[in-house]
Amino acid sequence: EDQVTQSPEALRLQEGESSSLNCSYTVSGLRGLFWYRQDPGKGPEFLFTLYSAGEEKEKERLKATLTKKESFLHITAPKPEDSATYLCAVWDYAGNMLTFGGGTRLMVKP
Amino acid sequence: EAQVTQNPRYLITVTGKKLTVTCSQNMNHEYMSWYRQDPGLGLRQIYYSMNVEVTDKGDVPEGYKVSRKEKRNFPLILESPSPNQTSLYFCACGGVFGTEAFFGQGTRLTVV
């Protein structure tokens, strides 16, 4: 059974204070690892897909990396508008659906 | 504009009264799915559909039904809602085999 664990559950940062969010996963065969952003009262919004260990992707202040057991979402010099819940999910070769982690709620104070 | 539309956005109902949450997409995706989101439990898949007339159970299908008679529509049916089905529900299209999924705005359901 696929498992996805995100840490920390909540993270409070000052504006400009860089940090990382962790996503640990267990799958039989990783087809893709996804990062989504979710704002309160809205549906998740796609950020990145990573397919193989060593892969990295960047978008503005966000950078996602992937190893064989975990993924990190690095946030460089965050701004208050980066405040949201960040969700990690995996798609297993053996299955037909996404499995999500519990999410990390990020709060960036000005 | 590419979108996934859910209706209603908010619903309060009583135990046992059948209800349907509609979901429609205009992106021509074959794969559609339903999730529920609960505090501390994250997003959990209820049902998914690989194509018209092809549906299958996700992780938490008990108490739910779905149908896929057209490519664009994927309604979620609660035949006899119970209070433990109070949750935030999301419909999504795409996301199959490692591709991007697009989510609707969500439906907040309260069963009293």
Helix and strand sequence of chain B: EEEEEEEEEEE
The helical percent of chain A reads under 10%
**Using DSSP, what is the number of strands of chain A?**
11
User: Quick one: how many beta strands of chain B?
Assistant: 11
Please give the count of helices of chain A. 0
The coarse overall form of chain A would be globular
Tell me about the largest β-sheet of chain B: 7 strands, mixed
Description:
- The complex is a heterodimer of chains A (110) and B (112).
- In chain A, strands 2, 4, 5, 9, 10 and 11 form a six-stranded mixed beta sheet that branches.
- Chain A is 0% helix and 60% strand.
- In chain A, strand 4 (30-38) and strand 5 (45-50) form a beta hairpin.
- Chain A has strands at residues 3-7, 10-14, 19-26, 30-38, 45-50, 56-59, 62-66, 70-75, 84-92, 98-100, 104-109.
- Chain A is globular and about 45 Å long.
- Chain A has 110 residues and is an all-beta fold.
- With 112 residues, chain B is mainly β.
- Chain B is built from no helices and eleven strands.
- In chain B, the strands form two sheets. In chain B, strands 2, 4, 5, 6, 9, 10 and 11 form a seven-stranded mixed beta sheet that branches. A four-stranded antiparallel beta sheet of chain B has the order 1-3-8-7, with no helix packed on it.
- In chain B, a hairpin with a 3-residue loop joins strand 4 (32-38) and strand 5 (42-51).
- Classes of the chains: A mainly beta (110), B mainly beta (112).
- Chains A and B meet through strand 4, strand 5, strand 9 and strand 10 of A and strand 5 and strand 10 of B.
Features of this protein?
heterodimer; A: 110 residues; mainly beta; five-stranded antiparallel β-sheet; 11 strands; 0% helix; 60% strand; globular; B: 112 residues; four-stranded antiparallel β-sheet; 51% strand
